[in-house]
């Protein structure tokens, strides 16, 4: 009996310890989320830890310091789907850790959509990683307004002065402060399968009428003309954006978002034109139910002839060793065709800086984090193009590096670009962007009329959310 | 030992860990969600107290009501399907050959994670390469449906894998309950001349009534707050045609930074679930519990 009691008590004790650990853990968790509001309403509490951290930060600057620092980095390039980027990131981390033996960098990798969600969830509980990636403009605005990101102007004025391509950091600036540093610059060409085009005697289209003829020919021969992952509505938005640009001129979309006014007649025309393409069976069957990856597979399998996507896909068509060379040789690109009487030029692109690096306002190791960002941006600018085929937002000396021809061509197009219109969903505030996704899906799914499309988009912009 | 167990302090010690966990993980967040629902908050910046404005907005929000309609339809369907599961369990619990194997086959979907099931069914529903459309084409159907892209059928297409996912769970519960019925009762009935149908309907079903009640609540409440397969397979799309309450809440809170409104939806969802539970309890209440033994 006595031993039994002993056993029971010791078990009890163990349970208590466990419970205490769990209890305090969950308490911390809920406190974290509840304190999200108060701490951000007064920016100083989140500022004060940085005051405490500054001694350690200055110590971190001197390499002799042996204080161990662990930086958390979250990025969006899983090894399986973005091998090139993943490798470059790992390499940069490796080099940085070698140069700063006291710093360990922990990474968490999530695919695009999950990354976006997780970032929001973490920010709600004030748990952002020390360093992470954000999208520009509308996407990051709530984070900036909520004092989640640290201004990085000192880096821009220091080591990174004049390193960026002109006009790339502006999309990350609010009230003269730059809160993230871009690592990518992308435009959206239409890739096409040269073999399919050759088989049916087709030339890359110059005008929308050409494009419609191509669609007709391909449909007559039971080839999917264009693959599109409408479930990820931002890909469908490319098509609407290009049509709006080609019909309404290079400023029509920027003006619409800036002025919260979607009433320009060419925006309605573009919506009609988009449905016209759907009526002509331009897009792959069931596109509104396909994710971008599923849609891409149709192009990679050679089943679909065209695919409009950002230049971040170029590695898959040039350097990615997992893609067979015979497919890579088939891929070409063309600039989105112009409308016969349109006001725009073929050298206007949809695109913009992609993701940029931010440093969390709450980071306990801000100096190290900033130094890492500085290092990352420079290193990335040196190796991303050659190693991963990604156009960095920093200036690239094209004469000094060797690149696949498709890549050089696109890089030259970028140099000749007369205007790059930033993605609509990035330009808009989150509420309006979300409505834009729904509306584009509905438009292409013919669930609403073009008139309702512009009316509802107008209302969503005016709601100011 | 008995002394230890009857000591109030010891009882408190045993209860405390799970109580703390439950409080921290379930009840505190519920209260907080209720509070957030009364605020205009983007999840990051400053909160502004706006009273019941979010709920007023909710009542006028057409998309919310259509998603609530989808959830209710789904809850109803899963409750109706329980009858089918009971039928399967009745057959399995009888002395038929291969019952063991069949039981395992029915249970397998439950062992898969939701995401795996979603991926599986995405492949089945794929508009051009999918098994389903392949089958239809080989049967000569010209214009095969776009299962997940057509707003008029997407909901039905989603219900199938969800019902399939949980079928095994309910069949197993019913099977266990039916196996628990003392053989003496069914044998006595048979000796009195009852046939199999009578044994099933008059003896077995009344005896597992309490279990049925619980499963109805589980199925209805589970369906009302269902999220995972829908999130992975359609993300509420196309154009919100397959949005349910939980996915709408998620979209508002985490896609549109409307955390306050999202919390209001979440709290409303909780109330709906509580009311549904209460109604089911009332509807299935029995005056005199059956006692056969």
UniProtKB/TrEMBL annotation, chain B:
<dbReference type="Pfam" id="PF00528">
    <property type="entry name" value="BPD_transp_1"/>
</dbReference>
<dbReference type="InterPro" id="IPR051393">
    <property type="entry name" value="ABC_transporter_permease"/>
</dbReference>
<keyword id="KW-0472">Membrane</keyword>
<feature type="transmembrane region" description="Helical">
    <location>
        <begin position="105"/>
        <end position="122"/>
    </location>
</feature>
<keyword id="KW-1003">Cell membrane</keyword>
<protein>
    <submittedName>
        <fullName>Sugar ABC transporter permease</fullName>
    </submittedName>
</protein>
<dbReference type="InterPro" id="IPR035906">
    <property type="entry name" value="MetI-like_sf"/>
</dbReference>
<keyword id="KW-0813">Transport</keyword>
<dbReference type="GO" id="GO:0055085">
    <property type="term" value="P:transmembrane transport"/>
</dbReference>
<feature type="transmembrane region" description="Helical">
    <location>
        <begin position="153"/>
        <end position="177"/>
    </location>
</feature>
<comment type="similarity">
    <text>Belongs to the binding-protein-dependent transport system permease family.</text>
</comment>
<feature type="domain" description="ABC transmembrane type-1">
    <location>
        <begin position="68"/>
        <end position="280"/>
    </location>
</feature>
<feature type="transmembrane region" description="Helical">
    <location>
        <begin position="72"/>
        <end position="93"/>
    </location>
</feature>
<keyword id="KW-1133">Transmembrane helix</keyword>
<keyword id="KW-0812">Transmembrane</keyword>
<dbReference type="GO" id="GO:0005886">
    <property type="term" value="C:plasma membrane"/>
</dbReference>
<feature type="transmembrane region" description="Helical">
    <location>
        <begin position="259"/>
        <end position="280"/>
    </location>
</feature>
<dbReference type="InterPro" id="IPR000515">
    <property type="entry name" value="MetI-like"/>
</dbReference>
<feature type="transmembrane region" description="Helical">
    <location>
        <begin position="12"/>
        <end position="38"/>
    </location>
</feature>
């Amino acid at each position: 009996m006595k031993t039994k009691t002993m056993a029971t008590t010791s078990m009890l004790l163990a349970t208590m310890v466990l419970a205490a650990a769990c209890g305090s853990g969950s308490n911390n968790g809920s406190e974290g989320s509840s304190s999200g509001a108060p701490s951000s309403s007064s920016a100083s509490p989140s500022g004060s830890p940085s005051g405490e951290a500054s001694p350690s930060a200055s110590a971190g600057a001197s390499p002799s310091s042996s204080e161990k620092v662990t930086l958390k980095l979250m990025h969006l390039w899983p090894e399986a789907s973005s091998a090139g980027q993943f490798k470059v990131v790992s390499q940069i981390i490796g080099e940085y850790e070698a140069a700063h033996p006291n710093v360990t960098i922990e990474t968490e990798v999530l695919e695009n959509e999950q990354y976006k969600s997780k970032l929001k969830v973490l920010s709600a509980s004030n748990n952002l990683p020390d360093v992470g990636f954000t999208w520009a403009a509308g996407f990051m605005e709530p984070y900036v307004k909520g004092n989640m990101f640290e201004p990085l102007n000192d880096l821009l004025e220091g080591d990174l002065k004049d390193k960026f391509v002109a006009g790339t950091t502006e999309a990350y600036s609010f009230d003269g402060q730059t809160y993230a540093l871009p690592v990518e610059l992308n435009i959206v060409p239409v890739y096409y399968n040269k073999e399919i085009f050759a088989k049916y005697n087709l030339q890359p289209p110059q005008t929308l009428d050409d494009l419609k003829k191509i669609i007709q020919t391909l449909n007559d021969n039971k080839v999917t003309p264009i693959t599109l992952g409408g479930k990820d509505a931002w890909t469908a938005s490319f098509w609407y954006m290009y049509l709006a640009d080609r019909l309404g001129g290079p400023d029509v979309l920027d003006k619409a978002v800036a002025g919260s006014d979607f009433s320009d007649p060419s925006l309605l025309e573009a919506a009609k034109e988009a449905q016209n393409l759907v009526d002509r069976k331009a897009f792959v069957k069931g596109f509104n139910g396909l994710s971008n990856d599923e849609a891409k597979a149709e192009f990679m399998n050679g089943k679909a002839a065209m695919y409009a996507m950002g230049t971040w896909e170029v590695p898959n068509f040039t350097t990615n060793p997992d893609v067979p060379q015979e497919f890579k040789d088939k891929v070409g690109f063309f600039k989105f065709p112009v409308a016969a009487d349109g006001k725009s030029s073929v050298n206007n692109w949809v695109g913009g800086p992609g993701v940029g690096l931010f440093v969390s306002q709450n980071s306990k190791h801000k100096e190290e984090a900033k130094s890492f960002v500085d290092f990352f941006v420079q290193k990335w600018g040196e190796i991303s193009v050659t190693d991963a085929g990604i156009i960095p937002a920093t200036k690239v000396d094209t004469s000094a590096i060797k690149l696949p021809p498709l890549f050089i061509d696109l890089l030259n197009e970028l140099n000749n670009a007369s205007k790059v219109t930033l993605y609509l969903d990035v330009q808009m505030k989150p509420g309006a962007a979300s409505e834009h996704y729904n509306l584009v899906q509905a438009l292409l799914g013919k669930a609403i009329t073009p008139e309702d499309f512009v009316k509802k988009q107008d209302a969503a912009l005016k709601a100011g959310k | 030992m008995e002394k230890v167990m009857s000591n109030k302090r010891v009882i408190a010690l045993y209860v405390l860990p799970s109580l703390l966990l439950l409080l921290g993980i379930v009840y505190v967040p519920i209260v907080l969600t209720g509070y957030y629902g009364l605020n205009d908050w983007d999840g990051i910046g400053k909160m502004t107290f706006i009273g019941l404005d979010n709920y007023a907005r909710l009542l006028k929000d057409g998309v919310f009501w259509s998603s609530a309609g989808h959830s209710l339809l789904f809850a109803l369907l899963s409750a109706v399907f329980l009858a089918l599961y009971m039928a399967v369990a009745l057959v399995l619990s009888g002395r038929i050959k291969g019952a063991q194997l069949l039981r395992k086959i029915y249970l397998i979907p439950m062992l898969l994670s939701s995401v795996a099931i979603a991926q599986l069914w995405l492949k089945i529903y794929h508009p051009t390469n999918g098994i389903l459309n392949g089958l239809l084409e080989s049967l000569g159907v010209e214009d095969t449906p776009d299962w997940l892209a057509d707003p008029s059928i997407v909901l039905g297409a989603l219900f199938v894998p969800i019902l399939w996912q949980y079928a095994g769970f309910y069949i197993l519960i019913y099977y266990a309950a039916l196996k628990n019925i003392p053989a003496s009762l069914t044998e006595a009935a048979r000796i009195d001349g009852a046939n199999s149908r009578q044994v099933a309907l008059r003896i077995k079903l009344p005896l597992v009534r309490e279990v049925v009640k619980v499963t109805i609540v589980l199925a209805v409440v589970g369906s009302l707050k269902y999220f995972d397969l829908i999130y992975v397979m359609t993300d509420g799309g196309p154009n919100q045609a397959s949005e349910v309450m939980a996915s709408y809440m998620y979209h508002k809170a985490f896609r549109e930074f409307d955390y306050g409104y999202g919390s209001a939806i979440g709290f409303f969802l909780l109330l709906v679930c509580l009311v549904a539970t209460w109604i089911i309890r009332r509807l299935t209440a029995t005056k005199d519990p059956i006692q056969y033994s």
